[in-house]
Description:
Two copies of one chain form a homodimer.
Chain A: H1 2-11, E1 13-15, E2 19-21, E3 29-30, H2 32-45, E4 53-57, H3 61-72, E5 76-81, E6 91-98, E7 103-110, E8 119-127, H4 131-143, E9 146-156, H5 161-167, E10 172-181, E11 188-190
Parallel strand pairs in A: 4-5, 4-8, 8-9, 9-10
Antiparallel strand pairs in A: 1-2, 5-7, 6-7, 10-11
Amino acid sequence: MELLKQRIKKDGIVKAGNVLKVDSFINHQIDIELMNEIGKEFKRIFSDAPINKILTVEASGIAAAVIVAQYFNVPVVFAKKSQSINIDGSVYSTKIESFTHKRVYDVIVSKKYLSPSDNILVIDDFLANGCAVDGLIDIINGSGATLCGVGILIEKGFQDGGKRLRARGVRVESLAIVDAMNDETGEIVFRH
Amino acid sequence: MELLKQRIKKDGIVKAGNVLKVDSFINHQIDIELMNEIGKEFKRIFSDAPINKILTVEASGIAAAVIVAQYFNVPVVFAKKSQSINIDGSVYSTKIESFTHKRVYDVIVSKKYLSPSDNILVIDDFLANGCAVDGLIDIINGSGATLCGVGILIEKGFQDGGKRLRARGVRVESLAIVDAMNDETGEIVFRH
Lengths: 192, 192
């Protein structure tokens, strides 16, 4: 998606340790207009899929997921990190290792909100090693729902998550794939 | 807001300990259509305010904030819980005690995303003892930005957050104020 790539080139900041900061427009401050264009693009890409629910994981996936959901006219479910007293015991759960935070989270979805009749689009802001998506697929599989595809805003093509998921047969659609970046020059190379 | 009150009566679940579960439509699964009606209502209520940014706190405030932001045509900033390696050192920070999770979070906003020229609408799903809003106001005050008001989906009128904030002169607009609820009968009494 050209608009997103251009915005990443303009406002993304490359940091040491393969960190790409996009917190001025995606995951701390959110450019709602850009998110709407992203929503339209995912609807175009997945227009053939019978999606009836969008699944993401808190916190940074939520903004994209709810805007995207408007174009599919479906509800969003977000997986929650760690047990909350507001969640019943009846949950699907998995563990997700966060690349950003260098820790492992317990992630849960109430059994009430996923069922075998659901056709799920997973939405997340980043795909790097794929741990978050692995966890969400785990939860989807546990529920008997069908995974229609995974929509990612920014894939780090130099990490193996996307490659591994596609090799498993998962339909992964990333709006921008970064194949290389350099924290000294700030250069970001996108896959064409 | 009649639509929201009706939905709370229909799908909200009262639990012991003054817990009102609305996770089937607000903060686990999200009804996007309802959120859009909520966005329109806040735009109507705050149409006189020169709002140029919406501030919320992760995670459950994000969904409402981004949908509401569409009606104001402004960006959203969400305060983050705990230090992330993706946040620069230059942050406004405060502590927020969560009623739901019974713990204290460090909450931060990058100094890049709040400035004295900002006119802020705070959005959150719940207002109970008001700790989250206190924290966000703390951050706004630290930045020199102006607080235009606080938009809440559900206020627990039997806890003192709303009363305390209004006594401080903060404009608090809650779409549904619950004055009493009973976890044995499931009854929910709204303020008129």
